[in-house]
């Protein structure tokens, strides 16, 4: 039988991921500290702690992959008008608002995907917190299970 203390700890594990807005790497440190301190006391807390940490590691991995795809497109778009042999090449750089580069569209599209992913991450964290408050188990979507 779950008591309110276990539900509260599991809820705070999920909500502690928001500490990243105040503390660098708080989305890892907060849940990790709460999970390590309470994982032996309750299977419910242990399951929620693993889910929260796995989700944060998965989000970090997805962000790194998206960044590795986006950054080359941005750099190619930035240096598209440069001729590295000609010293006066900076005079030939111009921004065209009427005909932007297709690479700019790709980079913008990936940026929109990143923004949508951020909003979905916030929604999933709130849903997991509410499930923990109600005493239900929650499995984050698209999560890689690093901790089993």
From TrEMBL:
Highest taxon of source: Bacteria
Compartments (UniProt record): Membrane
Keyword Transcription regulation: no
Protein name (database record): DUF4870 domain-containing protein
Keyword Transmembrane recorded: yes
Membrane disposition: Multi-pass membrane protein
Transmembrane segments: 12-38, 59-82, 102-126
InterPro entries: MamF_MmsF
Chief localisation class: membrane
Alphabetic keyword roster: Membrane, Transmembrane, Transmembrane helix
Pfam families according to UniProt: MamF_MmsF
Natural source organism: Formosa maritima
């Amino acid at each position: 039988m779950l008591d309110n203390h276990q539900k509260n700890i599991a809820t705070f594990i999920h909500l502690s991921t928001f500490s990243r807005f105040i503390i660098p790497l708080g989305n890892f440190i907060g849940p990790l500290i709460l999970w390590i301190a309470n994982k032996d006391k309750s299977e419910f807390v242990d399951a929620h702690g693993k889910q929260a940490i796995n989700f944060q590691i998965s989000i970090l991995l997805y962000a790194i992959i998206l960044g590795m795809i986006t950054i080359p497109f941005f750099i190619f778009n930035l240096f598209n008008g440069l001729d590295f042999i000609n010293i006066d090449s900076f005079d030939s750089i111009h921004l065209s608002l009427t005909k932007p580069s297709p690479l700019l569209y790709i980079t913008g599209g990936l940026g929109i995907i990143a923004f949508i992913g951020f909003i979905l991450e916030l929604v999933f964290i709130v849903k997991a917190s509410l499930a923990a408050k109600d005493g239900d188990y929650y499995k984050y979507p698209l999560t890689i299970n690093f901790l089993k």
